[in-house]
Amino acid sequence: MNHLLERIYAVAPDWFQTAALNAFGWKIRHERFNADYDRWQRVFAENERRSWSDLRDEQDERLRSLVAHAFEKVPHYREMMQGRGLAPGDIRGAADLPKLPVLTKDILRTRLGALVARDVRASSLRKGNSSGTTGSPVTVLWDRRVEVANNAAHWRARRWAGFAFGDSYVSLLGRTIIPIGRTRPPYWLWNSAWRQLLISSFHLKEENLPLYLEAMADRQVRFLDAYPSTGFVLARFLVESGRTFPLKAVVLSSETLLPFQRETIERAFACPVFDIYSLAERVMFAGECDRHEGLHAQPEFGVLETVDERGEPVPAGSPGRVVATGLQNYGMPLIRYEVGDVSSIMQEPCACGMALPRMAPVTTKAEDIVVTPEGRFISSSTLTHPFKPMVNVEKSQIVQERPDRVTVKIVRRPAYTDADTHTLVAALAERLGPSVKIDVEFVDDIPRGPSGKYRWVISKVPLRFGVSAEANLYE
């Protein structure tokens, strides 16, 4: 939707917004649910019964085709490979990818035109932007086949949660469904094309949450699709009200899922939580099966690597920087693209029986790490524990401007006392160490970012991997 249409939509009456949403929903449904989508689902179902050896051979074949295309049609890759004395035949499979350099976001920004295949017009490609959570947003172009493949991969991950297209569900994500300035309900719209109740994440106030739950009950939703942070807000309200809202499953994505969030959401909705890992750049997809022991990467969609600061593979089980190669985008191939996250590859087979490769949950986003003067990386997951007993804290946020100091912003509840501050600071000090001073700042609210996502840890201190440095979000 372009900016003019967005402005019209924002001031239009409710009936017009509902009609526009449904017209758009039916349009997207026809584009993304077609014969290619059905073919992908058949491929996925078959591949979930195959051995990893067979899947790897098929993935290597897809990779060879992509590299040959990139060499012939994409100026950046031709120049880069020729500069290294490489030909397409030198990349026979995923094991040969380290012969190529990592594609950084800076390269993507500065060489956008040179990364587009010469046999397509850039104007004919779909355009998307990353959220900018690992730095300045980047623009990515992809062809139509990626649109369908991405949708199929997304619904495959949802299928592992027992969630099929056509089931009634509620979405609590970052789109501006309702004008942000609205002060009266409804704060939601019904998308009949998808049987989807879209609820505004920009109106998550305590007084509105009972209305959200009433709307969910009216539509008899069976699944929740949310960010961990937005799902947690709704879940915490239920738990503190002594209520549950039983669903079949909750599917979460786009943010690091923290353990206490999973625990609270599962308790509130009396169902399992399934974590999905996907990227706006359309280079890989991963999701949890019903064993919840890591996330299964989808090898048909992309190649997953974890590497060190030199771009070399790290051993299975060791944390490294996530690098991915999208296998479906021939309009603008992204080969060995560094996504800005940290994870590890799990070597042991999954008890579910699928041979799809697995990655550990992304518990430490590269931009969400507190860096101490000693150079220690303190993950956001570690820092959640001091907040678990803090029942009198409505919202919190950790901001780091420099290595020796952090500021904890707190939105207090009425029962909050100085004892809460003392307990929290003492527990944080245990994890951060004596070299980090902790300041507490009481605020009225901690707003979400423009995308609707909530940043819990914000660090402006660069992350150092060996001789290189990666900027956190706001640097």
SSE map:
Blueprint: H1 3-11, H2 14-32, H3 35-47, H4 52-73, H5 75-83, H6 105-110, E1 126-129, E2 139-142, H7 144-159, E3 169-172, E4 188-191, E5 196-199, H8 209-218, E6 223-226, H9 228-240, E7 249-253, H10 259-269, E8 273-278, E9 285-287, E10 295-297, E11 302-307, E12 320-326, E13 337-343, E14 345-346, E15 358-359, E16 364-365, E17 370-371, E18 377-378, H11 380-384, E19 393-402, E20 405-412, H12 418-432, E21 437-442, E22 457-459, E23 463-465, E24 468-470
Parallel strand pairs: 3-5, 3-6, 6-7, 7-8, 19-22, 20-21
Antiparallel strand pairs: 1-2, 4-5, 8-9, 9-10, 10-15, 11-12, 12-13, 13-16, 14-15, 17-18, 19-20, 23-24
Helix pairs in contact: 3-7, 4-5, 9-10
Low-confidence stretches: 131-136
CATH architecture of the largest domain: 3-Layer(aba) Sandwich
User: Based on helices, strands and strand pairing, what is the structural class?
Assistant: alpha/beta
Tell me the β content.
Answer: 15-25%
Strand order of the largest sheet: 4-5-3-6-7-8-9-10-15-14
Number of helices in the DSSP assignment: 12
**Ends: how far apart?**
30 Å
What's the CATH H-level superfamily name of the largest domain? ANL, N-terminal domain
Question: Major sheet: size, sense and barrel closure?
Answer: 10 strands, mixed
Count of individual beta strands:
24
CATH top level assignment of the largest domain: Alpha Beta
Mean pLDDT: 86
Radius of gyration: 23 Å
Share of residues in helices: 25-40%
Task: Describe the oligomeric state of these chains in a short phrase.
Answer: single chain
CATH topology of the largest domain: Rossmann fold
Q: What sort of overall outline do the alpha carbons produce when their principal axes are compared?
A: globular
